[in-house]
Structures are given as C-alpha cells and as structure tokens.
Task: structure prediction
Amino acid sequence: MRNYEIMYILKADLDEAGRAAEMEKLHALLTENGAEVKKVDESMGLRDLAYPIKDEVKGFYVVIKVSADDQALYQFNRKVRHNPSVLRHLIVVDHE
Result:
C-alpha cells in the first residue's frame, strides 16, 4: 500500500449535512476496498473557481490523505467520475 493525497471539489450548493453525507460516501468507497483514510482537511473550504466547471463558479475543497492499493484507487476513480456532486478530483502520490 502506498500513501496518496486526494483532492476533490464538491458543489457549493450542498448544505452542511449534505456535504458531510457526500464526504462520508466518498470515504466509504475507499475503506470498502481496503484503503485507510488517515487525514481529512477541509480548511480550504468554499472558494471561487478559476473558471466555471459544469456551470458552477464556487466549490468546496476537501483534501484527504489515504493509504491505498491500486484496486481501491481504481474503484474510487471510476465511481467518483459519475458522481454529480463532485466537480473535480485529483489523486497524487504523497511522498511525505
């Protein structure tokens, strides 16, 4: 298992409960496939986007650090692409 950093942007129109439920679903996608979510950082919060994404001009940024294998990342990537609440996501190897 390797360490990864995943950043995703949720739609800004989600209320706090909806955002928390969506984050829980996304993290469950990882843990159900054997990954471990080590840290969740919501400090960037709601921000203006540099350019509109899917007609949205604001988004809620979340960064998580996970320890996962290729299968867990493949399943997460495959399912998050079709999630209408996620505007964008990015997965990078965490070298820390």
Q: What stands out?
A: The helical segments are 16-31, 70-80. The longest strand covers residues 36-53. The longest helix spans residues 16-31. The mean pLDDT is 92.
